[in-house]
User: Fold this.
Amino acid sequence: MKASHRLLAVLVAAIWGVNFVVIELGLRDLPPLVLTALRFVAAAVPLVFLVPRPSARLRYVVAYGLVLGVLKFGALFTALAAGMSAGMASLVLQAQALMSVLLAAAVLGERPTRAQVAGVLVGSVGIGLLTIGSGGHASVIGFVLTLFAAASWALANLVMRASGETRPLSLLVWSSLVPPLPLLGLAGVVDGGQAVLDAITGLSWRGLLAVAYVAYVSTLVGFGIWNRLIAQYSIARVAPFSLLVPVFGLSAAWLLLDEPAGPTELAAAATVLAGLALVIRRSRADRNNATAASEGREPDYAPAAAA
Assistant:
């Protein structure tokens, strides 16, 4: 992966880390499923009239919208409203990195290198340390829903990769048309139709700003970059960068919500960075092959065999 693309992946992790703090603030004024629905309404309109239709088949567009919008974010926002702290949610959600690598290997045949597997495992140890040291508490239902959201995110990565989409932003915008109606329907069942109507008509400035961030910054910018990277590289190369999300999430909570960060958190963050370094490290054989290609020589062995 190019250095500039690595920086983009780190930027996305920072955006998503701050996103957990913004969601927590937005949930003070809006029910979780209503906030999720408004997120995708704002992400779709008016861009759906400006960007071309996705090149992927319709079933991939609908599947991506349902899995990412309804399953992942519906479950995540509900978990936060059910007592899952923002810091803990940012930690548990990163189980998707390992799930994504395993799903891509099982379904798409994208076999990760040993360094990538080792990096994900080391990063997962760091996530575990952060969980122990965070001191956060979560309800059982909140934890289960966040884990379900992680699995849904891994599945969304798989749908994105399998779609063969050549215009990731188009897929993101057009698939955002799918979640609002199912989410509002679920919100009507869970919270009641009048509560949904009151939340939308009485939208506060804080709620409006939260919707703007999660829709435009987190969804369009964050997932726009993320989907483009997944379309260009393998899932095993991209997904582990999400291990940085809780590092930025805990930092944002410390700066914006005055949540403490002690030695355990710092040590865990260093472990996550070490795992990420393993993932993005090029092996000696890869470097030799790249050099041979630039000099017009035959590589030492074929990339498929190296995998």
